[in-house]
Amino acid sequence: MEYDTLTARKLTPRIGAIIEGVELGKPLGEAQVADLRKALADHQVIFFRNQDLDPARLKEVGAHFGPLARHALKGLPDHPEVRKLHADETSKHVAGEEWHSDMTCAPKPPMGSILYLHTLPSLGGDTVFSSMYAAYDALSDRMKTYLEGLTATHDGKLAFGRFDPTGNYPVAVHPVIRTHPETGKKVIFVNPGFTSHINELSKLESDAILNFLYQHCANEYFQVRFTWEPHSVAFWDNRCTQHLAIWDYFPEVRSGYRVQIEDEQAPVA
């Protein structure tokens, strides 16, 4: 996979690449943006080292790929589209500590997210990403047929209620198997962070199928594990990946900023 303005070094056979030759802290040209779009489609999640960003510049980077989506939890006062992610010795929970795709409780979940971390613990704090292309492809033909046409409810309170139990969080219904709008590939689109149940099944059957899918999607053969360094960036396609932030560094500090990019359409089967 070749690009005109950057290089992409694959990290695993199925997902993830390190991008070199791009300084996100400086204005991006059209050719660079086009190459980054292609790299994201090719690798599902792309990583950058040694980037100089602040919330304003992070917004500018994200806006190249679409309008920025506001998170269900509050953003920064001066930059409401930017969410601060910070964990320290006072934290009782951290964002993303179970497998999920971002904000699938929204009628149109974000197409992607960009996370910049400036402060890291001395050890730990990795993020693991799993390819939902690979997860779908590994299902048996009989299971693929069974899942086609099913829908699931995604409830924001499951993920965000522990941070603010009084919040009014969105609830949405999406296909269990969705088609990626750009690549045309099928993906599994349920996750333990947001999905409450499969609508067409009894609770007993729904729980059994979801538990199987969650275990299946967490298979290490579908994954890439990213070890952060200060001033690193991860940009993931939210439509075809899940991720898990590993909180193994308490009570040390892990801190940075994230933006989410709106999708043009709701998930379709």
UniProtKB/TrEMBL annotation:
<dbReference type="GO" id="GO:0000908">
    <property type="term" value="F:taurine dioxygenase activity"/>
</dbReference>
<dbReference type="InterPro" id="IPR051323">
    <property type="entry name" value="AtsK-like"/>
</dbReference>
<keyword id="KW-0560">Oxidoreductase</keyword>
<dbReference type="GO" id="GO:0005737">
    <property type="term" value="C:cytoplasm"/>
</dbReference>
<keyword id="KW-0223">Dioxygenase</keyword>
<keyword id="KW-0479">Metal-binding</keyword>
<dbReference type="InterPro" id="IPR003819">
    <property type="entry name" value="TauD/TfdA-like"/>
</dbReference>
<dbReference type="InterPro" id="IPR042098">
    <property type="entry name" value="TauD-like_sf"/>
</dbReference>
<dbReference type="GO" id="GO:0006790">
    <property type="term" value="P:sulfur compound metabolic process"/>
</dbReference>
<dbReference type="Pfam" id="PF02668">
    <property type="entry name" value="TauD"/>
</dbReference>
<comment type="similarity">
    <text>Belongs to the TfdA dioxygenase family.</text>
</comment>
<keyword id="KW-0408">Iron</keyword>
<dbReference type="GO" id="GO:0046872">
    <property type="term" value="F:metal ion binding"/>
</dbReference>
<feature type="domain" description="TauD/TfdA-like">
    <location>
        <begin position="8"/>
        <end position="257"/>
    </location>
</feature>
<protein>
    <submittedName>
        <fullName>TauD/TfdA family dioxygenase</fullName>
    </submittedName>
</protein>
